[in-house]
Amino acid sequence: MSLKVQDQVGLLQDILVNHLEDCCGSVSECEQLGRLVKSLLASNSISSDMQPLLEEIYTYCQSGKNSSDLESHINAHQEELSQWVGQINSYS
């Protein structure tokens, strides 16, 4: 069973909030973010205004996945994480 777009956006937001609040995460979370973003970008159900945001999140998760220090990567992106969570709230 696949997730609906609204569920995918909710899961995306949950992971980003965890990174923002906990200042840590895992490679598997970064991989999950990447899969969610790719799925949302392939969907015809998202606003074209949301595409740049999703592309930024994709870059973040790919860099994080390949980072030798994921915690530092997450800490370095706290401001962006906060902005992304706010933007996702405005699309919901």
Features:
mainly alpha, 92 residues, 76% helix
What does this structure look like?
The protein is mostly helical. The chain has one domain. It is built from five helices and no strands. Helix 1 runs antiparallel to helix 2. The longest helix is centred in the N-terminal third of the chain and has 18 residues. It is globular and about 35 Å long. The model has no long low-confidence stretch (mean pLDDT 93).
Give a quick rundown of the structure.
By secondary structure, the chain is mainly alpha-helical.
Describe the biggest sheet?
none
- The helix/strand order is HHHHH
Mean pLDDT figure: 93
Whole-number count of domains: 1
Low-confidence stretches: none
Q: Which class best fits the helix and strand makeup? A: mainly alpha
Q: Distance N terminus to C terminus?
A: 22 Å
Principal-axes shape call: globular
Approximate strand percentage: under 5%
Q: In which range does the helix fraction lie? A: over 70%
Helix run count: 5
Instruction: Count the beta strands.
Output: 0
Radius of gyration computed on alpha carbons: 12 Å
Please outline the helices and strands.
Elements: H1 5-22, H2 27-42, H3 51-65, H4 70-76, H5 78-91
